[in-house]
Amino acid sequence: MKLSIKSLILGLGILLSFNSYSWNAVGHMVVANIAYQNLQPAVRTKVDAMVADLNKEYPYITHFSQLGPWPDALRSQRIESFTHWHYVDLAISGDGTPIKNIADTDNAIWAINKIEPVLKNVKANPYEHARFLAFLVHIVADIHQPLHTVARITAAYPSGDKGGNLYIIKYPAQNPHVMPLHKLWDEGFELFNNDTSTTHIDALTNQITAQYPIQYFGSKVTELTAADWAKEGVELAPALVYSTPENEVPSPMYITLGKQTAEQRAALAGYRLANLLNLLLA
Predict the structure, then answer these.
(1) Cα separation of 242 and 238, whole Å?
(2) What is the pTM assigned to this prediction?
(3) Most buried of 37, 52, 97, 160, CB within 10 angstroms?
C-alpha cells in the first residue's frame, strides 16, 4: 500500500509537470510589460513593428506583453523543437549525492546567446526577427524563475528532480492537494493566477514596479549575461526554494518569502530585458 501511494503521488507530480512550463501567462506578460515600459523610444518603435509582423501569423498578438506567453502556446500545439530553451538544469545536491553535469546543450543560456545576434542582424527576415524577439522575451523571464535553472540531485533522483517537478508538496493549507514545487513557483505563489486582461496586467505591473522600482536593484539591472542570471537561481535554490519539506504544506513564512522573491525576480527580469533590448536594437 505504501508503495502504491508513493507511486500515485509521483505519477501525479509527473503529470502536473507537463503543464508546468514556466512563469504562467500572467507572469510572462508582466515581465514583458515591465520591459516595455523601460524601453528607449526608438527601440519601442522597433519592437512595435515586430509585434505587427508576428500579428500577421498570430492575430491575437497585438501588444508587446503578449509576446511573453507565445512560446508556451507553441508547446500547446505539440511543437516541441524549442522545449529545452525554457530552462537549464544546473545540478545541486540535496543530500550529499555527488553532482554531475545534467544540463542539455540547447538550454536557456545557450538559446539566449544564440538569439541575441539574430536580433542584432538588420538583414534578418522581419518575421524571424519577430519570432526570436518573442523567444527572447519568454526565455529571459524563464531564467529568472529559480526552478528553471536548477535540478536537485539526490539518491532517489540521481539524474535530478527536473527543476522541482518531482519535488512534491501539498498546497494550499486549506484543502491541500499534492503538486510539484515547480508549479507553485511558476504561479508566483498565486500572484500570477489571475486574468490576462490589459487592465489586470497593467495593475499588477504597477504594483510590482512600485514595490520594486529599478533603483531597488542597483547595478544588477545592467548585468546582462545569461549564465550569471542562471547562477542567481542556483544561489536561491538551497537556502530558499528547497527549504520547504517534501510532502508537507509550506509554512506561512515560506509562502510570504516565496511570493516576495517571485515579485523581485519578475521585476528584475523585466528591467534586464529592457536593458538588453535597448542594447541589441539601438
Answers:
(1) 5
(2) 0.91
(3) 160
* Per-residue pLDDT reduced to its tens digit, 228-270: 999 999 999 999 999 999 999 999 999 999 999 999 999 999 9
Quick one: which of 233, 35, 256, 29 has its CA closest to 144?
233
- Please answer whether residues 268 and 219 qualify as being in contact, where contact means their C-beta atoms are separated by less than 8 angstroms: no
Helix 252-280 to helix 41-55 angle (10° resolution) is 100
From residue 234, alpha-carbon distances to 80, 151, 152 in Å are 26, 9, 10
User: What is the pLDDT confidence band of residue 79, given thresholds at 50, 70 and 90?
Assistant: confident
Nearest to 276 by CA among 80, 115, 48, 50: 115
22 contacts 86 by C-beta, under 8 angstroms: yes
Cα 38 from chain centroid?
Answer: 19
**Cα–Cα distance measured from residue 182 to residue 162, given in angstroms and rounded to the nearest whole number:** 9
Catalogue all structural domains in the chain, each as residue range(s) with its CATH number: 2-280 (1.10.575.10)
Q: List all residues 6 or more positions away from 96 whose beta carbon is below 8 Å from its beta carbon.
A: none
Phi–psi pair at 73, nearest 5 degrees: -65, -35
* Residue 224 and residue 275 in contact, taking contact as beta carbons nearer than 8 Å: yes
Query: Helix, strand or coil for residue 52?
Result: helix
